TrEMBL record, chains A, B:
PROSITE patterns: COPPER_AMINE_OXID_1 (PS01164). Contains 1 topaquinone per subunit. Its EC number is 1.4.3.-. Residues 101-192 form the Copper amine oxidase N3-terminal domain. The active site is at D303 (proton acceptor), Y387 (schiff-base intermediate with substrate). Homodimer. Belongs to the copper/topaquinone oxidase family. This is Amine oxidase. GO terms for biological process: amine metabolic process. Topaquinone (TPQ) is generated by copper-dependent autoxidation of a specific tyrosyl residue.
Amino acid sequence: MHPFDDLTPEEIHRARIAVQSLHRGEELVFKGITLEEPDKNIMIKFLQDGLSGKIQDPPPRQAYCVYYIKASDTLMTTWIDMKTNLVSKSEAPSNEFHGNVDFNEVDDVEKMVMQDPAVLEQIRRLKLPPHLTVIAEAWGFGSDGLADRERQYQVYMFVSEVGKPDSNHYARPLSFSPVVDPVRMKVLRIEIIPTGADWTLKPLGPYEDNGRNEYVPEANDLRTDLKRLHVSQPDGPSFSIDDGNVVRWQKWYMRVSFNYREGIVLRNICYDGRPLFYRVSLSDMTVPYADPRSPSHRKQAFDLGDVGAGLVANNLKLGCDCLGSIAFLDGFISDRRGNPLRKENAICIHEQDNGIGWKHTNYRTGRACVVRNRELVIQTILTVSNYEYILAFIFNQAGQMNNQVRATGILSTCAIDQETQVEFGTIVHPGVLATHHQHILSLRIDPAIGSYSDGNSLACQESSPFPHEPTFNPHGNGYISKTRIIEKSDGVDIDINRGQTYLIQNPNILNSINGRPISYKIHSPPMQKLLASPDSFHYKRAEFADHEIYITKYQPDELFSGGQFTNQSRGGHGIKKWAARRDNVENEDIVVWVQFGLNHIPRIEDFPVMPVEMMTVSLKPVNFFTRNPAIDVPPSTLASNQSVQVNGCCGITSSL
Amino acid sequence: MHPFDDLTPEEIHRARIAVQSLHRGEELVFKGITLEEPDKNIMIKFLQDGLSGKIQDPPPRQAYCVYYIKASDTLMTTWIDMKTNLVSKSEAPSNEFHGNVDFNEVDDVEKMVMQDPAVLEQIRRLKLPPHLTVIAEAWGFGSDGLADRERQYQVYMFVSEVGKPDSNHYARPLSFSPVVDPVRMKVLRIEIIPTGADWTLKPLGPYEDNGRNEYVPEANDLRTDLKRLHVSQPDGPSFSIDDGNVVRWQKWYMRVSFNYREGIVLRNICYDGRPLFYRVSLSDMTVPYADPRSPSHRKQAFDLGDVGAGLVANNLKLGCDCLGSIAFLDGFISDRRGNPLRKENAICIHEQDNGIGWKHTNYRTGRACVVRNRELVIQTILTVSNYEYILAFIFNQAGQMNNQVRATGILSTCAIDQETQVEFGTIVHPGVLATHHQHILSLRIDPAIGSYSDGNSLACQESSPFPHEPTFNPHGNGYISKTRIIEKSDGVDIDINRGQTYLIQNPNILNSINGRPISYKIHSPPMQKLLASPDSFHYKRAEFADHEIYITKYQPDELFSGGQFTNQSRGGHGIKKWAARRDNVENEDIVVWVQFGLNHIPRIEDFPVMPVEMMTVSLKPVNFFTRNPAIDVPPSTLASNQSVQVNGCCGITSSL
């Protein structure tokens, strides 16, 4: 067993037994059982010795377990040594921390709400026609500092079609929202949601139906002129998967793992036998909403910390989510009782063609050399209630690694009166408002540029003009690029006007041709930072959302930039605190956190399901190799790719 | 014949005859014969009446001809009426303007240089071994205001392998550069290029060979583990091409044309019968270099205006440049004698799959709806000496149009002494420097949002926090987006920190559901603007490179943002001048110019041929439709896409 292997079902089982032995007679509600990150110092030796063929003792293997003692709201974290099955450590975090939402509890809450007399009374007032019914949807409560120390759920209510369980209820939001205590499992109060342009609350009257807005194919006239497109690999894929998680493809090597919180975690990423990254994963994400009115002011999802990317991973059905020759990996998480739960087909791996990789034509001889840009995709897809994220790590033959996020799914909606407009949202259906919101993601990169044991540095590269003076730059065209090392842990920004780019460097290894430190540069999309006021709870909680880049010195247990527990968090336990140590981060064991995302001003075109919005963070080699690493890709030829010429003339005559 | 149809070979022939009749007995050197843009006012009526089935007289059809009277350096522009074959207008532009570089002249210059005694004397001093030879490569001269009124060429010299015409000579640059007068066809002088860190010039000595750096496959050990990937469309493609240039695909409609300067021009782009854009093309491009020393200080390519995207368009060989079912269009330009010249396969059209288009899973029922993101690609590829641009317009099923640019090819190089470093370039091979440079492109969008005849406006949308105050925003989370119309023609910028986005709006048509003006928004990549000093020639010439967006009121003959003639231009005749009119551009016939590009700090990985660097400008509907226009795309199913599951286990055992 490799230290980076995920817990097996058998190990999850043993961990549960060990935890239960600590709490004899008590019923436990498990939130997660997962591999504790192995000791990095030992792992570095282990990996380094592996490179030279030596065998080193692996670090101790531990399970990390998070759970509640049922009906007590006491959150516990316990570590189990997998060799001895003994508890290594167990503690109850402060009661300001809360475990993540899980779908068993959500289901319980939603069912309970639909039987609550006060809720039923509200529903009666709607005077719904017989073909309509009501659906409850539980959200994490968020924080505003007002009586929110206890764990709660905010439940949004919608109208749906009787007997059509896949009708899009998000097109029919209601303006009341029960608040639920999940420990005592009861409705605490029903909040009324304003439907005008201000805070005014209106009494609930009979429901005015504005009609359906469905996404299921049977409810839409589908276009009929889309011809089939097949992707096939007659000789099979170019990748291999060994030992269940070792992926090799086109000189790339990595270990793929999966946990309930981050979903995909990639470890020990190497190219051509040279280490690049020790560990890469999506660390956190925050989705704060713009509506200042209660209860919407608390709407701020942390989809990874509040719920879990692995917990809500889709079963990637063959042939629907991907095209071509696809391999699937299952993940194992735990259910509420701590039993192993198989997440089938949670990860898919396939190759794709992404156009031309490089090309040059010699104009003297007319000879063209062209190669295609083949990519390897390692993908997972999350459904967090209404919303979907397609998360992929993509590798190419030029030594580049991308983290691509596609945002899709259904906008979070609320009711709005007819003839009303607000500046914090867009009407996407009659009577339906989709509030502006930001998606700010945080990618954690634990680098090992060219070596497991060397220190790395983060350098800011920027370009500026030479002074226009008569000696060196008399014509005024000259400019230079300079790099500056970030010396202390910090949050830093990207100034496009100065051409700033950040490079993760290994200052101990210089390029053999040009003498520059071997590096990987970070290319991230432009991002408007968190808009919420710095003294708001949105801001305090979204620890990472104020800088495009954070750099910290590696510390175990610092994996999640928003903090270990984000559900109803209040800030103070994440990246800001760690960066504030002002550790030396020059030529050290560093961690780089890349924030990216979008300010989503909804378009009506984003409803009922939004077309994917794509964001990509790229990690590209800079003076890491001695030439284009894709120069050895075989040329694209007709014989190998079997493309065909078509005339495109379908006999349709021009009329426009 | 449709007014937007390109000139036919027969028309080019007739135009040449008509021009020649104006210059009896004189030999002419043609630079271009192309369709004069038809009168827009007449065209709007023509297109509008076409929508309602009426037939309107087309505007007069004219050819625009640019040429030199041979050996006189007199540039002429003449318009020919294609109905009468008569000259409508003829004029000699001011002698500060110069025609574009063409490959016949480049060939003549390069051959002449290689026979020039002074050049041969320099070559002798190199004392080359018998397996090496010298290659001359002619560049546009650029401008610095010093004795550059006359048209000239700057010729760069390289060493190459005897008998290996596709050896990469860019890995062996020489440090002398002849300057050529192309009218008298003679070498004016030989300039020495500094090879140290400053302006010091060194006498040319025997050539020190630093070895080859080849990109041709036979000179490289190719990787052998890349398996074949086929794309096939068993029922043919989903697009049709009628009348040679009318492309229909998935509710899209457009006319594709081709000219020597812009390459692809798209006109009358509609979705589902609704007009979107009257005309879209890449208008201009500048590539200024960072080396302040002579002669590099003049290095600033305008690849479209100085040469021509159509002139240097590649023959897109079937199955090498694209994958799948591909249609090709030829283009027609003119040769130096004014005869029609077929550019075979200059444009390719094909479909591609770009991952998931939208997805939602109902967590209650587990039902997933997912569609793929099929795209139509209309592509051309340019080779401008060492460098390649892959230019594509890409359409999807969600009403989105992209202009994607892939930069590839070979870096422009010069010689550098061993053990020398400079801050304005990167060593990419021993003794070889690739200078920093910017690529700034200018996309011209002549919009017709929702109507041919309505005025359009450009709106700047930005997001800002509500004030954190107790009445409306007591929790401090609220934020709003507002739009502001640009009232006067101007250059404007994108401030990421304020979340600025620009929307092209039709204020006369409001969305039927939400009452907002129908719009298309511009999403362009972040760009560092021109770094050259504002009083430099680089800056004066790159009229468009100081703002991400320009907006002007439509004027005929304002097609090229750097000006009609960019070769050795001095500025003052492009977008800056037009914007300075401060025309009213609110609800008017506007043109929007989008600048984008990259500051290329070369990596050693960009040599010998660079992996594609991708930049995309997107035009996305915003409240133009009433819902996601791709909601009617048929779902992706295994039956239709025939994907297969693989286990990825190739029996390779883990060793790392």
